[in-house]
Give the backbone structure.
Amino acid sequence: MIALNPVTLEGHGVRLEPLTPAHHEGLAAAAADGRLWELWFTSVPEPERTGAYIAGSTRYHDIAPAIDRVEIGYTWYAARWQRSHVNTACKLLLLAHVFETLGCRVVGFRTDNINVASQRAIAALGALKDGILRHHQARRDGTVRDSVRYSILAAEWPAVKQRLTARLARHGTARSGTP
C-alpha cells in the first residue's frame, strides 16, 4: 500500500520540492510570466492569492492507497518553460517515484476538456485516455467543466519511461544533472 511523504526529486535539469511559503516569490513570478491566472480554465493563482494557493496545493492528489493509485496534476509552468523539456522531466521524476519507489499500480491525470494543449501534453507522456467525466468540476468562473481522464498502468511504465528518457535525450537533458 502506498504512503506518501514529502520528498525532493531532482534530475534532468529540474528540481521538484514540496511547496512551502518560501516559494511564494518564485511562484508569483512564474504565474506572472504569461499572466497565467487569466486563463479561466486553469488553477493558477493571482499574485495576491499565491499564499493561499501554497497553503492548499499538492501535486500528487486523489490518493487511493487501498488500490495503489495516485493522480498527478495541478501542473502549470511559466510561459517561458511551456513547450520545453521541463514538463517531460518533471513527469519522469514524479512517475519514477510513484512507480519505482512507492509501488503504485496506476497513475492518473485529468484536465479540462477545453484545454487541448494539456490533453496533447498528457498523451505525449504516454498516458492513455480513459474517458470523459461530464459535468465534473467547477471552474473558477463558475462554469462547470467536463474532465478528460488519462492513466498509466504499472505494466506500461517501462515503455513510458523509455519514451520519456528518449525525449529528454533529444533535448540534451537525459542525464541526472542540468542540461
In short: The chain has a mean pLDDT of 89.
